[in-house]
Amino acid sequence: MSDEAEEGVLKALQAALAAEHAAVYGYGVVGGRIGGQRLAEARSAYDAHRAGRDALVREVRDLGGAPVAASAAYALPFAVTDTATAVRLAAELEARVADVYSDLVRASSGERRGSAAAALREAAVRAVRWSGESVAFPGLAERAGSGAGSGAAAGGSASPSPPLSASATP
Length: 170
What we know:
Elements: H1 3-33, H2 39-62, E1 73-75, H3 83-107, H4 110-131, H5 141-144, H6 151-154, E2 165-167
Antiparallel strand pairs: 1-2
Helix pairs in contact: 1-2, 1-3, 3-4
């Protein structure tokens, strides 16, 4: 693998790691507001994102990188005050995580690409479960019309929206 290709993979891994950090934080918020019927689903997603985060930390280190650290707090895209907004946040987290994994699929090859595709699929499935809606190409269609594009949707390599924005205050 060329140095440029390895740098692209490392950048995509770091973006996926940052997204997983934000998703773990976001599911902490979801878990505090979600109704009892969907609490187990939220816990399962939280555990999946923790496992994804830990795997990505190992991959970044294996490539000789210093894993991006989690922020102390993240700004939520909207107020989460009840079960309905908690469900909406969970769907948003998963859609944004899928976006980032689509970039990792594009940047990777071999086993890493397969793992990234599996993570993309899992995030897309969770997004559908939370929102009740699906898109034809998770991780791409949402950005195609927004101008924030990445990958094939925009023909470039811009950074996708993070699941949550880092915030200086909790």
